[in-house]
Amino acid sequence: TEALLKGAGIIRVNNWKQMFNLAKCFGTQSIPKGRAVAVISNGGGLCVMASDAIDRHGLRLATFSEQIQKELDETLPYFYSTQNPIDLTGSGTATDFSFALEKVNQCPNVDSILLMPLPVTINLDVKKLIDQIKQKANEEKNIKLEEDIEYVGEW
Description:
By secondary structure, the protein is an alpha/beta fold. The protein is built from six helices and four strands, in the order H-H-E-H-E-H-E-H-E-H. Strands 1, 2, 3 and 4 form a four-stranded parallel sheet that branches. Helix 3 links the parallel strand 1 and strand 2. The two termini are 27 Å apart.
């Protein structure tokens, strides 16, 4: 059954929430040019879960260009994981997220970006992060901002 659905281009969902989320994405987001995804988060576990989901759905983690990797390594604190998936740890700030997003968005090897800030750390000012991303989205036409904040887990 799965092979038949996949061959027909049908995406199977397991609940209503997944169906509505997919419909929302298809209605508001452009289709990526390829399958290379970059992940940016401040939660290591969330990075692992996203990486597994990316693989499970036939996508792949993007490999950053040497120049982008160098800029991430030289600018972000040494204890952040700057390879894909980027884990800014609980120390990640809005400025760190914005910088990582800007650099990853410049990488020609990246087709889409999954930005997943966990708003549970002291250092992360979520309002400031959203404002910075909105500003960047207005400056660059290829950034689309979906302002959904959802709890992780099933309803």
